[in-house]
Amino acid sequence: MVKIGNIELSEFPLLLAPMEDVSDPPFRALCKEQGADVVYTEFISSEGLIRDAAKSVQKLDIYEKERPVGIQIFGAQLDSMLRAVEIVEKSNPDIIDINFGCPVKKVVSKNAGAGILRDIPLMVKLTEEMVKRTHLPVTVKTRLGWDSSTIKIVEVAERLQDVGIAAISIHGRTRVQMYKGEADWKPIAEVKNNQRMHIPVFGNGDVDSPEKAVEMRDVYGLDGAMIGRASIGYPWFFKEVKHFFETGTHLDPPTIQERVEAARRHLQMAIDWKGDKLGVFETRRHYTNYFKGIPHFKEYRTKMVTSDDAADVFAAFDEVLEKFGDHVFA
Fold first, then answer.
1. What φ, ψ does residue 224 adopt, rounded to 5°?
2. Which residues pair with 44 in a beta bridge?
3. What is the pLDDT of residues 114-162, one digit of tens each?
């Protein structure tokens, strides 16, 4: 059994990665239903929280059915991060996660996200003070290092553990790599195999099949997998991995009806949470994967991703069900 603080999880838990404009409450709910053990919010700016910026504050919304759920924050200013912790605590998450891994330029340029990998002492100091400030378990998501010549993740993970974090998730790329090339899990395994490490070490990056999850567990010996891009528009991924763990066989992919129903629920929940305009816009990125593998689908996809009217998108779902409802996936 794996534990984050006092939170007991399964033997090899699957975590939904925090993804900007993706891991919002509607999507987290769908992933939870399909077997995600822990879900994380989109990353939230500490500066936005302390300024009471509407978008940042809205991201604090969490629901009982999601638990255990972690709220992820980022920043590089100690005072702002500590004030943000106090704001986050009021939303009563199960975990507070610190983002030391986002490679996006606008984040990195402020020394936040993966930018802090250029200043490990600051990274450790920020983490230490945040752990002291809250009663909740604090976890960290980070990358191997800034670039290939500065990878010190074994030392960094140990130092973060020593100041009190409850778990660490490591993406197997450097900041310079962004999302290019293959994720390297070997340095993550080195962190896990460090005799001094006693907290869970989760791997992240390129877990895009049940076989990859098995490899991360059995070959690299990690404590769990954090799933990101493979789940976008495909919340069934968690269920499929767990089925493979238990049986060694692949679960049949979801039917057209199941795909349409999930897409419909996702859009409706997004509209209920964000309003019509944002709900329609921010759900678009999921449709390609919801309906992946359907032949001659372009016409319907175009309707889904270009219409600003929810009624048009729901109508496109109906058309897909009517035209492809008998389609069987291989």
1. 180, 170
2. 73
3. 889 999 999 999 999 999 999 999 999 999 988 888 899 999 999 999 9
Beta bridge partners of 100: 142
pLDDT at 164 over 70: yes
Q: How far does Cα 251 stand from its chain's mean position?
A: 23
Q: From CA 77, how far away is CA 113, in angstroms rounded?
A: 12
Model confidence at 330, in pLDDT bands (50, 70, 90)? low
77: part of which helix (H) or strand (E)?
none
pLDDT of residue 21: 87
Instruction: Answer for the pair 42, 65: CB distance below 8 angstroms, yes or no.
Output: no
How does strand 14-16 pair with strand 201-204? Answer: unpaired
Active-site positions? 102
What average pLDDT does range 243-268 have in this prediction? 95
**Residue 324 backbone dihedrals phi, psi, to 5 degrees:** -115, 10
Please give the domain boundaries of the chain with CATH numbers for all domains: 2-247 (3.20.20.70), 256-324 (1.10.1200)
Using DSSP's 3-state secondary structure scheme, residue 4 falls into: strand
Q: Decide: residue 318, CB within 10 A, 0-12 exposed, 13-18 middle, 19+ buried.
A: exposed
211 half-sphere exposure, CB direction, 13 A CA radius:
1
Could you report the per-residue pLDDT of 55-84, keeping only the tens digit for each? 898 899 998 999 999 999 999 999 999 999
- What is the pTM (predicted TM-score) of this model? 0.94
Give the chain's largest Cα–Cα span.
Answer: 59
Helices (H), ranges, 70-223 = 78-89, 105-108, 120-133, 153-162, 186-193, 210-218
Express each pLDDT in 11-24 by its tens digit. Answer: 999 999 999 889 99
Strand, coil or helix: what is 7?
Answer: strand
Enclosing H/E stretch for 141: strand 138-143
DSSP-assigned letter for residue 253? P
CA distances 254 to 198, 214, 234, 266, 292, Å, are 38, 21, 9, 15, 11
- Per the prediction, the chain carries an average pLDDT of 93
